[in-house]
Every structure is written in structure tokens, then in C-alpha cells.
Automatic annotation (TrEMBL):
Keywords: Membrane, Transmembrane, Transmembrane helix. This is Cbb3-type cytochrome oxidase assembly protein CcoS. The chain crosses the membrane at residues 6-26. The keyword Transmembrane applies. Residues 49-70 are annotated as: Disordered.
């Protein structure tokens, strides 16, 4: 019977810790924006293409080694 009290005490303590952590991060705004990370993956490629400088073409040529030529 003593182990039952110990298990109840441990589970309630763990639940209280999780509740406190959740409240702290909810107040910091961790869970405010839940839509943009799912949509951001769709637009990452376009942002990279828009941000490329004309000087980056030389970088692409350098990265292509002898084994990577078509």
C-alpha cells in the first residue's frame, strides 16, 4: 500500500512540473503562432531564390566538382 502512495505522489509531482513548464512557455508566447511554421516550408525555396546575389553564380560553379558534372 505504501508504493501506491509513492506512485501517486510521483505522478502528481510530475504533472505539476509539466503544468508549470507549460504555463511559463505559454506566457512567453511559445504557442502564439501555430500556422506559419506549417506554411513556411512552402515558401522557403522562393525566398532563397529572391535573396541570391549575382555573385553567387561563381560559388555554385566552385561547389560542382569533377564527379558532379552532367
Amino acid at each position: 500500500m505504501d508504493i501506491l502512495y509513492l506512485m501517486i505522489l510521483c505522478s502528481v509531482s510530475l504533472a505539476a512540473i509539466f503544468l508549470v513548464v507549460f504555463i511559463v512557455y505559454a506566457r512567453k508566447g511559445q504557442f502564439e503562432d501555430d500556422e506559419s511554421p506549417a506554411v513556411r516550408i512552402l515558401f522557403d525555396d522562393e525566398k532563397i531564390r529572391e535573396n541570391n546575389d549575382p555573385g553567387d553564380k561563381d560559388k555554385d560553379k566552385k561547389e560542382t566538382g569533377e564527379n558532379n558534372k552532367n
